[in-house]
Amino acid sequence: MSEKELGKKLDRCLADSAVKLGAGLGLGIVFSVVFFKRHTWPVAFGLGMGLGMAYTNCQNDLRAPYLIQRNIKVSNATKY
Amino acid sequence: MLRVCLKGANSAARKCLCGNGVPLHPLQQCRSYTSGGSGSSAGKIVAASVLTVGGGVGGTILYANWDPKFRANVEKSIPYSDQVFGLALGPAAPPPVINKPRKVEPVQISSMSEMWKDSKQPKAKEVEKKAEQPDAEGPPAPAPQETLEEASAQVAQILSAIGEVPSVPAPGTHEAEAVPPPAALKGVPAAAAKCTECEHEPAVKERPEGEVAARLAEQDKAEQDLLTSLSSNLEDALGSTAKVTLQAIGAQEAALQAIAQHTRQLREAMEAEAPPDKKSTQWRVLEDALSERSRSVDEAGAAVLKAKAELDKLRGVIDGAKHLKIAAARPSILAAEENLHSMVVDLDSVVTRVQTAQSEAKIVSQYSELVNEAKAQFQKELNSITPEIQANWKGLTGKLTQDDLNSLIAHAHRRIDQMNRELAEQRVREQIHIDSALEQQKLEDKKALEVAVSTALEHNREQMRLEQEKKVEETREVMEAEMRTQLRRQAAAHTDHLRDVLKVQEQELRSEAEEANPEQLKETEYRRLTQDQLDSFTLDMNAAYARLKGMEEAIDSHVIAEEEARKAHQLWLSVEALNYTLKTAALNDPTEPLEGAVQAIKESCAEDEFAQALATALPSESLSRGVYSEASLRARFYAIRQLARRVALIDETRNSLYQYFLSYLQAMLLFEKAQEAPPAKLSAEDLDTFKLLSYAAYSLEHGDLELAAKLVNQLKGESRRVAQDWLKEARLTLETKQVVSLLSAYANAVGLGTTMAP
After folding, report:
1. According to the UniProt record, where is the region Disordered (chain B) (predicted)?
2. Hey, how many other C-beta atoms are within 10 angstroms of the C-beta on B731?
């Protein structure tokens, strides 16, 4: 059903963002502890990176139907 | 962040100041420093913020001044910025969008002007000038149209002229034939002949015999009239021509006589040696004769011209008569031609005679002139020697002295010598002159001969042609007469034969009739009675048979009608079954697959093409999977509506996550009517997502799934994508319902058709 698609996309977004944030947090903690003398900024950096990646992924997922694909030639593309 | 910095700055300041062990003063300093720092930092904050804002605004204004698109964007997105920009920069320049169409128009029109012919170019240029204006769509279209109309009018004129042209020669050819006869023959007969010819041409059907005979009689009469008129005309023409020709010949003869007389008198005057007074009378007589001759010659010439004209006229009349092509007139035509020919011959001969006489007269006159000259010369000489002696010196004898006589004799001797010399010279020259004269004469003779030969040839040819025509005419007449006799003989033989055969037949029949006696009469009576009985029997039999046939047919038709009714009933039942399956839809579940019911329909109406076509027109998905009911679609619609409202702002250009957030915000803040009656026509502003959804909801609530589907079809962007499946289902349901309703209507109609009213 086409009306359920948006819901599914948003679910994926949330799941993805949770994963990315968690991963970012984890890596940030690791780096902070290992390389950067327990400063807070790697954690923030990792969280930020994770959030950014999640945001971009979500956006791309929501945009996917409107993207013009490079493997379709203009002459072959059907018009809607 | 700022507080952290501030705290950091504070702690740093305190450390540096308190670390040095400075007394309270520094604390005050510190305090003042900090308070001053706080005051100055507040001021700094304010200053920094003011600077930032001012810098931002100034930068925006400067960039807007440089880039009008940016200015337009800012004006669109920030309210009241257009007024600020107006104050700072002045009004924005109007967007230069109109240039492109303007540039395109002259190109189009120049191409159009190329299409027209060269003569139309001034008009096209005019049109180009007109097109310089911004709204120039109107003039170019009517102006080329006008020229097109003109061209078409010209073409039509040319075509009509061409169409007219061939029609002209046709009556001309017909008229050309008709013109000479009326010119030659005046009045009614010619018109009658033309009319009969015209009548014969259009009507080409058979006419009854009487009419044919009447027409033939008419034609004959017309021919007769024509003939009489023609002959009378010919005679008149002949008579006048003959008269004129005779006149001409007479005049020529008179001229001939006058010339001969004149010549004779001239010769006499030359040779005779009469006394002076007689001579003068002679000269006077000669002069009269000369004048007489010239007059008669002129008269003759005029008469000849007149005669020639008359002859030409006569020839024209004969040609006209020939054109009429009437057989009976031929002999008279031939006679006229002969007369014409003879007249021409006579005229020519007389003219030649006159010419010869004239040439002779010329010779004589020349001779007379020469003689006169010589005489005058002699007289002069004589006068020069003996001046006092008169012309008639013969009478003088004693008056002359010796010397005069001697001188006279000497002069005479000298003259004689001179004469002798001249004579010798003359003799020599004479030979040469004679030779040249002979040559000339030969040439002239040859020419004259040729002319004579040609005229003689012409006359001969004419003669032979006339003879030939005469002979042809005779043979034709003979042939016609013979044919007529033969036909008459044949007709007579035929009538005789018919008469004989009829007579024989009459005999036979009479004998047969007499043989019939009373017995035979009775027998025929008896036969007649039995025949009557048989006739009545057969009539009864036929009637009975017809009734039987009628009954059989009635029964058959009943059977057929019942069969039809049964089939219709079956069809109706299967359609009802299909209808029922449509009702088996539970909420949110589709119906059962319609396959089985459709199969039943197809079997029940195997030979009905319309029902078969309809049965196959059902969409395959409805057959395999079933369709959703209207109620389930209605319920589903509300979920769709919520979702469509939420993504109303998303389309191809706006689809970032931020736009999604905005779209959700819009859906939360925007309130529209839950249901709104859709107008009859959708305008541009009705194509807003929210409005469309409320229209669709209204339609659904009022049971109009079709209109709801149409309205949902107008959605754009992400809302459309969200509603896609619902739309597909709605289409399927509508299609299926339509086909099923058609089938049931058809089944009902067929059922109605087969039932017979009591």
Report:
1. 111-147
2. 16
Residue B475 corresponds to which tokens in the numbers above?
A: 């043979």
Could you tell me the pTM of the whole model?
Answer: 0.40
HSE-up of residue B260 (Cα within 13 Å, Cβ side): 8
In single-letter form, the type of residue at position B300 comes to A
Q: Give the model's pLDDT for residue B192.
A: 42
Summarize pLDDT for B187-239 with one digit per residue, the tens: 444 444 444 444 444 445 566 677 888 888 888 888 888 878 878 888 888 88
Q: Is A35 on the interface with B (CB under 8 A)?
A: no
Nearest-CA distance B660 → chain A (Å): 9
- B640/A3 touch (CB, cutoff 8 Å), yes or no: yes
Look at residue B39 in the predicted model and tell me its pLDDT. 63
pLDDT given at position A77 = 56
Residues of A in contact with B647 (CB under 8 A): 6
CB within 8 Å of B300: residues ≥ 6 apart: B248, B251, B252, B254, B255, B354
DSSP assignment letter at B590: -
Residue A35, min C-alpha distance to chain B (Å): 25
Predicted-complex ipTM score = 0.87
B44-49 average pLDDT score? 94
Min Cα distance A12 → chain B (Å) is 14
Q: What is the DSSP letter of B688?
A: S
Tell me which chain B residues have a C-beta less than 8 angstroms from the C-beta of A59.
656-657
- For residues B285 and B276, give the distance between their C-alpha atoms in angstroms, rounded to a whole number: 14
Residue type, B666: Q
Count of A-B CB contacts under 8 Å: 35
* Boundaries of every domain in chain B: 215-385+406-503, 584-755
Chain A residues touching residue B656 (CB < 8 angstroms): 59, 63
Q: What distance in Å separates the CA atoms of residue B125 and residue B119, rounded to the nearest whole number? A: 11
Closest-approach residue (CA) in chain A for B724: A2
A15–chain B Cβ distance below 8 A for any pair: no
B90: left (phi over 0), alpha (psi -120 to 50) or beta: left
Torsion on CA atoms A25, A27, A31, A34, rounded to nearest 10: 110
- Looking at residue B553, what is its pLDDT? 95
CA angle B529, B535, B537 (to 5 degrees): 105
Integer Cα distance of B661 and B676 in angstroms: 27
**In the predicted model, what is the mean pLDDT of chain B?**
78
What's the pLDDT score for residue B652? 87
Question: Closest approach of chain B CAs to the CA of A41, in angstroms?
Answer: 14
Measure the CA–CA gap between B417 and B411, rounded to whole angstroms: 10
The CB density around residue B514, as the number of other CB atoms within 10 Å, is 8
Q: Distance (Å, rounded) from C-alpha A10 to C-alpha B630?
A: 30
Give the CATH number of domain B215-385+406-503: 1.20.58.70
Q: Which tens digit of pLDDT belongs to each residue from B650-692?
A: 988 888 889 999 999 999 999 988 888 888 888 888 788 999 9
pLDDT at residue number B98: 57
Cβ contact B726–A2 (<8 Å):
yes
Using CB atoms, which residue from B640, B657, B721 is nearest to A58? Answer: B657
Taking CA atoms, B509 is separated from B518, B521, B541, in Å, by: 18, 17, 40
What torsion do the CA atoms of B448, B451, B453, B455 make, to the nearest 10 degrees? -140
CA distance linking residue B358 with residue B354, whole number of Å: 6
Q: Å from B640 to nearest chain A CA?
A: 6
Q: Which of B640, B647, B652 sits opposite A66 (nearest CB)?
A: B652
Chain B residues touching residue A6 (CB < 8 angstroms)? 643, 647, 718, 722
Q: Would you give the DSSP letter of residue B119?
A: G
Calpha distance B289→B672 (Å, rounded): 143
